[in-house]
Amino acid sequence: MIFKDLQDYISALEKKKELLRVKIETDPIYEMAEIADRLVKQNGKAVLFEKPKGSNFPVAMNLFGTMERTQFALGVNSLNELGDRVKELINIEIPTNFWDKLRNIMKFKELSHYLPKIVKKAHCQEVIEDNVDLFKYPILKTWPQDGGCFITLPLVFTKNPITKKQNCGMYRMQVFSKNTTGMHWHIHKDGAYHYRYYKENNQKMPVCVAIGADPLTIYSATAPLPEDIDEMLFASFLRQDGVELVKSTLYDIYVPANAEIVLEGYVDPNELALEGPFGDHTGYYSLADYYPVFHIQRITRKKHPIYPATIVGKPPMEDAYLGKATERLFLPIIQKILPEIVDINLPIEGIFHNFAFISIKKQFPGHAFRVINALWGLGMMSLTKIIVVFDENVNVQNISEVIWRLGNNIDPKRDIIFTKGPLDVLDHASNIAQMGSKMGIDATKKLKSEGFLRDWPDDIKMPNEIKELVDKKWNKYFK
Question: Whole-prediction pTM value?
Answer without folding.
Answer: 0.87
